[in-house]
Amino acid sequence: MSSKPVQTLRRVVIRFAGDSGDGMQLTGDRFTSDTARLGNDLSTLPNFPAEIRAPQGTLPGVSSFQLHFADHDVLTPGDAPDVLVAMNPAALRANLADLPRGATIIANSDEFTTRNLAKVGYQTNPLEDGSLDSWQVHPVALTSITVEALATTSALTRKEKERAKNMFALGLLSWMYSRPIEPTEAFLAGKFTSKPEVLAANVAALRAGWNFGETTEEFASTYAVSPAPMAAGTYRNVTGNTALALGLVAAAHRSGLPLVLGSYPITPASDILHTLSGLKRFGVTTLQAEDEIAAVGMALGASFGGALGVTSTSGPGLALKAETIGLAVSLELPLVVIDVQRGGPSTGLPTKTEQADLLQALHGRNGESPVAVIAPQTPADCFDAALDAVRIATTYRTPVLVLSDGYLANGSEPWSVPAIADLPELTVEFTTEPNAVTPDGSPTFHPYARDPLTLARPWALPGTPGLEHRIGGIEKADLTGDISYDPANHDRMVRLRQAKIDGITVPDIVVDDPSGSAKVLLLGWGSTYGPIAAAVRAVRAAGHHVARAHLRHLAPLPANLGGVLTAYERVVLPEMNLGQLALLLRARYLVDVRSHTAVRGVPFATTELGEVILTHLSEVSA
Amino acid sequence: MSSKPVQTLRRVVIRFAGDSGDGMQLTGDRFTSDTARLGNDLSTLPNFPAEIRAPQGTLPGVSSFQLHFADHDVLTPGDAPDVLVAMNPAALRANLADLPRGATIIANSDEFTTRNLAKVGYQTNPLEDGSLDSWQVHPVALTSITVEALATTSALTRKEKERAKNMFALGLLSWMYSRPIEPTEAFLAGKFTSKPEVLAANVAALRAGWNFGETTEEFASTYAVSPAPMAAGTYRNVTGNTALALGLVAAAHRSGLPLVLGSYPITPASDILHTLSGLKRFGVTTLQAEDEIAAVGMALGASFGGALGVTSTSGPGLALKAETIGLAVSLELPLVVIDVQRGGPSTGLPTKTEQADLLQALHGRNGESPVAVIAPQTPADCFDAALDAVRIATTYRTPVLVLSDGYLANGSEPWSVPAIADLPELTVEFTTEPNAVTPDGSPTFHPYARDPLTLARPWALPGTPGLEHRIGGIEKADLTGDISYDPANHDRMVRLRQAKIDGITVPDIVVDDPSGSAKVLLLGWGSTYGPIAAAVRAVRAAGHHVARAHLRHLAPLPANLGGVLTAYERVVLPEMNLGQLALLLRARYLVDVRSHTAVRGVPFATTELGEVILTHLSEVSA
Amino acid sequence: MSIDLGLPQRPLTKKDFTSDQEVRWCPGCGDYVILAAVQAFLPELGVPREQVVFVSGIGCSSRFPYYVETYGMHSIHGRAPAIATGLATSRPDLQVYVVTGDGDALSIGGNHLIHAIRRNVNLTILLFNNQIYGLTKGQYSPTSRVGQVTKSTPLGSVDTPFNPLSLALGAEATFVARVMESDRPLLMDVLRAAHEHQGTALIEIYQNCPIFNDGAFDLIKDRSQQQARLVRLQAGEEVVVGAEGERKVLVRKAHGGVEFVDEAAVDRSAAPGAPGSVVVHDPTNPDPSDAFAISRLDGPEMAHVPVGIFRRVSRPTYDDQVREQVASALHAAGGASGDAELDQLLRGPDTWTVP
Amino acid sequence: MSIDLGLPQRPLTKKDFTSDQEVRWCPGCGDYVILAAVQAFLPELGVPREQVVFVSGIGCSSRFPYYVETYGMHSIHGRAPAIATGLATSRPDLQVYVVTGDGDALSIGGNHLIHAIRRNVNLTILLFNNQIYGLTKGQYSPTSRVGQVTKSTPLGSVDTPFNPLSLALGAEATFVARVMESDRPLLMDVLRAAHEHQGTALIEIYQNCPIFNDGAFDLIKDRSQQQARLVRLQAGEEVVVGAEGERKVLVRKAHGGVEFVDEAAVDRSAAPGAPGSVVVHDPTNPDPSDAFAISRLDGPEMAHVPVGIFRRVSRPTYDDQVREQVASALHAAGGASGDAELDQLLRGPDTWTVP
Ligand SMILES: Cc1ncc(C[n+]2csc(CCOP(=O)(O)OP(=O)(O)O)c2C)c(N)n1
Ligand SMILES: Cc1ncc(C[n+]2csc(CCOP(=O)(O)OP(=O)(O)O)c2C)c(N)n1
Ligand code: SF4
Ligand code: SF4
Ligand SMILES: [Mg+2]
Ligand SMILES: [Mg+2]
Q1: ipTM rounded to 2 decimals
Q2: I need a labelling partner for A546 at 20 to 30 A (CA). Which of A104, A141, A472, A588 fits?
Q3: Residue A36 is inside which H or E element, if any?
Q4: Could you check whether the bond before residue B556 is cis, i.e. omega within 30 degrees of 0?
Q5: Using CA atoms, how far apart are residues B599 and B613, in angstroms rounded to an integer?
Q6: CB contact, 8 Å: A499 with chain B?
Q7: Tell me: the pLDDT tens digits for B296-312?
């Protein structure tokens, strides 16, 4: 513990920013872990360029990691950082606009060389020219102090020593916000077992950073943020991609089906493939296919064989999978399709977030091709969404599309790890006996006979004697599944497939309207959960009444949704697209849902949404 | 001319039905041609199985061709045939349900053998067992009379002679409806130049059919249908696929651009590829690609080079092209994408018609990816739609999707051939000069600078010195087109692309409301034009007031559409899907558009729609 | 996951493999012949029919699965190899066949085909090559000969066709064969060998489409021409063609590749491998160069068309190895995971507890 | 459609081919070296830069077009060969280059690649092979060696990689070459030959990805190892490897294929083509069998890696023939069509007139 005075804060937003090669993501991850352990609630937002490592010191090469932690329920990664750690001039320049006046800047002064300044268009050194006077600037010679701290470690070159400077920064910030550094030391020990010098250097740099804070007069006090009250339980920090992968494994476990992931790498979905490829010990098979079409084809082939077929991708990949998902709709086999949405159209903004694949998920196939669609709302919620998707896919024998996005995928938050026994029961029954009789009375199998309740068709696996049958993408006769061009049969089958999706059991939408007297309902779906909830909280704190509800099931929609929408004078729907859910709801319920849209590749800011709400409130009460 | 008494009819619906190998499509085509020449208005509906030639004599192998002709404006191929020509028991069985009591059946009695009857489940011969007593049945030994008529043609085998029986049937029907057979003789002469025996046999069979009608006592009288009053002009009969191909060639001609079609065969779009591949003389290049993705890629590559890039497909192919169309949206290059819709989902009903790709056309891509969408309404209208699509694509530098369907593609009607000079002017201007200056004042080229009126960006072709530039699917900075991850820029570009589409000039929708006092508006889009118009006509003839309007532009929608929809007490929208346009209009205008949907793979019947209208009329006036 | 219902076992017959679906190919289509041969072959495998799966794409040929009384999937155009890969990898107990056409496999599906081949997935791929798109009514295909006039090439096609076997060999194939539809004994032999083969077996079957490309293979079907053109590859034997007296023998060229020379001109004393020395067919040669050279013998003029097994070598299969990685991970972890292991996974290395 | 603005002509330099865009590859990426070589090469073509077009897919390598001051399109993953085919076919006046990676070209884009190759479209395809997916941060690719541990293969990959050159040869390639990124003279030579070539030229460029697959080519980069491994193919010359004194020479094997033997053991009296006889490299050999055999020399252990031009034969190109069909149709019809011809087309053979 530090010997300097400690100030207590309720919440802090820190942004680590540096070159793509500076290890900012790791630094942020570690700070997050240590913060989570302290019991703060938190939310994170990594942000990096599509290039792997753009030229050093340039604006396009800046990579950052933002962390919001507090002694209370945290809903977003924070609109604006209280502290910016800028590892070079580019990091400063790229992030300064987001920094409110008065915020703290810790800058690696070693990197503010004439050459580096010029690279990003600084004529003079902002650390010295007074242009940062409105902020609290702490220039720290991060690089040279790190190298000096490692003077005795002769096994490494200067370049290698310099690389430890992110650990120095982490040590300093850990000191400043009273985070322990031991867990990171343990983490480093695990990571660098085979490279003892590198381990030693990193640990030394970490400690040096801490000591620097404690020793130097640059920093007068440290800060503490008390733990947030959280429900009892065991917690960990998870990103959305990790939670999704874990959810799939848990669902496979609960359903007794082997998990087969067919996937083709694409940002920001690739980590799902990476994570699952490391979970073979749970019977997970991952197949990296030649493209997205093959990936979903492999998953569908596995489903035909009785596995839990899953495919993961992002928007451009979903476009490619369209025809095969249509086949799955026609085959009526379980299939889970994960789309981690990113900025579009086309290649778009591969590393940024967006919600613009909703209509593609619903309508992006030829013919009437209905599927179920689910959207998780926070990183940790991706776990539950995966379980829910598997429940629907296996119960109703249908493709289910899960719409995550770049923000959920890479963002993280504490997650109360559930007990296995509390997870939903997902047992699947395969058909093993004939389910019909031929005109002459002998038993036979009708692959398109349906469960009267769910309208699901039987899942009879190859290998089951006596149930040999053929299925395909051509229209099939009701019950028998034989090829049929009969007009009335086609109409019936089209409506049956739609009715099956419409009949999926989904929970009612829950409205949060504490006063009961709100006239305006803030509605959202997917990853806007945090920003909307935070904005609503802020507006309520200012004494206004506003209701809030969040949609998890986009297809089918909850049965009570129409009633909820018409119960309010105004429904406001913020989306990171041009109003896709608004289109669906307006069409379905003829309610004049008001869109608020922003397509910037970044989550909504709480303040922005707060203003939107206030505008609507004033219009409605006017 | 026949010497038997002639009865005059106002309209006739004939259906030729036989085995896939019986040449029914050719027979129907010829009868249509000869009928068109007589000045009747007409509409046709071919109907054939997805198999090339299913086993002879079976129900799945039946192929038919229906023709409706009249002395007045014809809007549909007719709900129910007045005459069925059934070349075998399968043809009878497959079509009888469509045949109103009292209709005429001409059946090839030679084929009603025990074996053939059994093949389709007839226990006894319907021509003899009295089961057809409600119809006027004429059993004719078509096969044996044909063979007999060719007795002197010794160069052919019996099998070959039998093959001419469709010409016998054509001759008989031509006699019956007072059609000339000389044009068909001329047609056959052209077709069989290199096979004189076959030619002779076909001509002999044709004449024998005519003479059979004239001579035998089976038929008491012949019928005449007077010419329909038509606007002065030169007419020909066209199918939708032919009209589309011709429209593209005409558009290329008027725009001065070489036409490059990239295509992959798929029913029912393949004929567009076939037709265009025969028009090299018009500078048309057709590239049969390895798949649909390559096909649209080739078209887009050609557009980049300054050609008129076009790709043609059906629903499953459109799904595959999604990602590349998204690239075209981002590149902002002209591209025409033709989707001849067929029954879906998945492989669906390849040879049947449907309108279920509208939402796919609009939404089937990742991100906000707006395109223009046009739907022709009759076979001949496909010509105009093609011209309109090219106008929009080249003027606005955007992909344009043309939604034809299986009914338009293969159906036909008389078309008043326009004078070339009356076709729209489509001249395209390429950019050849710098359009901006660098900060230091030297001229430069901004590939994403926009025309203030159309928001179109410049089309500067490779080969133009000084305008070298790079474009791509990653988000680009406004004006310069450089890669940009800037949040505000992305939002701006997303909205600019949408605004460009929204700003396309399309004509107002025209309402047909003769009395001006209708409360119900019948709205349609695409190929439902004929059935809706016919039903409205029938309902009006019964003394009711009903208004009618048909949408050609689905994106953007006509500016006056909202006003039109709200001007009526009720808007009824029949679609061959589950209500796709209804969804869009309800969302956009919050009007309670009433869907009437049928997804049967066949066009709406006039009577069915008539009843729908009457129901709505009674509800509204009640 | 094979399920034993304890049904009585009796030797299966062709009829057992015939489904109740009406066969809907054109009269005279070569597909009938292949169907009959496969249905006749399947009983001899001794594999219960529920353990056989046919996966196809789209095309006339791809209707095949409907007619065989096994499990089957008529999927979408070109994607059968990918779907079959997913099935075969997750279900080692099944015999997975892919049925495809020249358009399905080599045009839209080319990529899935070559990737299945390089991975060496346990699949038998029956490629019905009629050198035309049948189902869409007669456009040229990637195996149509240059100059072929079709619906989409009124002035003749200009693209060089693929040689499916050269392509497969270039894609690291372990089993490659070609058969004429009408040669039932050879088809049976090849199917048998493919069944024994571990990995992807590609069998190209020349199939006549009497409607849109009739007679494409007449030069090698016609008895009078066949002998001079059809080259029956036999493991361990010289590669010969032609009738008695007009026999030609395959020898090595001086600058790579192989060629036929009159038997009389063959120098049997040439050292094995010397130019002019006789080629003894060895499908098990690890080096695919000879198989490749032999695959180059045929051309559009069909001067010499080798049939039989070109290559048959052993290499670990994709699906076996994928399963092996999973199995060894399970083994290393001490068996299948229960609730405890899952719980540990969910917790991860870094938890904290709120009391 | 080339547009002549009458701009003054002066010899172009490397700088003229350098765009104003900041190059955004990782420090040390092999792509820099290739970019510099191509920019240095382009001026020597004597082709004005507006007539050069680079079309790429997606991947680190596919960012290439942004950096070259010509026309360019950074398209979507795997589709560049198809897009370039449309462009090259409609614009014979342009020099069309495709830039692609091992994932872009051989994974998602495999089908377009082999079809472009069999069609022999006038394209030069630069395939940057770093045996990894760079842009998506390090998953294995279809050229990664068996056992490679990557983000998606923690226990090592199990699929046999493609040999891109064998694959191309199996796909009827007319021009096939391989170069090391660092070998600028050879790269220039090959680019020059590709430029002269009519049809599709596939150039595989081994490229190091220092971030995700560093050192993949060290065995042939490292001076000490290089000589024993790198095989420089030279037309008309023997194929040799190894330093003076340790030289090995390529000879034919007895049962197809080729192998290296110690120079001392070579029997120079062996008849040309005999087993043990020396292979004289002939890229123009119409029979691709030798080129194929040579392509088989390299393997994951990189014992012998041939570089240079494997094959270079002439065959009519797709785009030339497509244009020729259009031109001859125009010619037969007596020239371009005017309003009258279009009018006749619209009317068709069967009109009637309503007065
Ligand atoms: C995505 C898609 N594209 C195109 C088609 C149309 N199509 C069906 S089969 C086929 C080609 C069939 O040729 P081949 O594989 O040779 O089979 P064959 O009919 O000759 O047996 C095509 C182009 C389709 N069904 N789906
Ligand atoms: C349709 C689609 N799928 C996946 C991706 C993601 N993606 C981008 S580049 C790439 C692979 C790149 O590998 P390679 O072609 O070898 O290029 P490198 O980065 O190694 O130069 C992938 C999978 C994408 N952009 N689009
Ligand atoms: S079209 Fe050809 S391939 Fe298809 S079923 Fe008929 S004969 Fe066979
Ligand atoms: S990730 Fe590899 S290939 Fe991509 S830019 Fe970096 S070093 Fe080059
Ligand atoms: Mg075929
Ligand atoms: Mg790569």
Answers
A1: 0.96
A2: A588
A3: helix A24-37
A4: yes
A5: 18
A6: no
A7: 999 999 999 999 999 99
